[in-house]
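1st attempt posting a full record on here, be nice pls
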Amino acid sequence: LKEPGHQRLVFYVPDSISDYAIAMYSGFGRPPKTYERMGQLAAESGRLAVISDWDDGRHFTESTMIDAVYYPIDWLRNEIGKSEPRNKFRCFFGIGHSFGGERLLKAALTDKEKRFAAVAVVQPPERLGKYIREHQALYTISKTPYARALAVPVTLASRPELHVFTLVDQANLIRMIDDDSSLFDAIKSAPEYRTPTQILCASSDGHVDYKDATEAAEMMKNNGAKTELVHLDEFYKRPTDKQMEDVFGHISDFFDRISRDPELAA
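the predicted structure (as tokens):
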């Protein structure tokens, strides 16, 4: 599904749909097909799954990208509401990896409508800008007038997943980096956050700091939020199907336990 002004949504639909749906958010520059196995696993278990495509995400500010996290949930609510009661899905769950996990958690932390019954995030970075600046000279080159002509070829060669093909792309990416805020600050600013959250992390995943995920989990626990921390044996920026199957097993068990919560059922 692609509607004007919104990101593309890719659906995985089971033969018989259960009473809750799963929204998934991919890593930065990673197309939905990267996480196809996760969508298949959700559908195989009877859950409707939708994966957001961040392909145009570099054009968004942080606030509009958080709105983009809400979009698939709101779309499902509205579409289902046209033909069936709005409570067709008892609840929605969210899964995000890396950048997608960071955006998902920020969105859940600031969501006054409490769209998500629970969220699971895999190796979230503390800040997108830090992740990019630590891995390349992109930021410095882009901010240096006499070197700016090198920005696009350097970025394209070193980080092709960022989809930077023109100076406009480069400028949009830098704008998003400049607009970015700390995940830790978002957690500190939401002491009332109580959405059950599972954070999964692996020291083998070197593209973001392993400590970011563990610290985020501890901060939320200290705030009183129901938070689970899962240490994975291995997980990488480009996860294999086997790794996704293992991770989905942890997440599916977590969501099942939450869905049996009497308060949620009420």
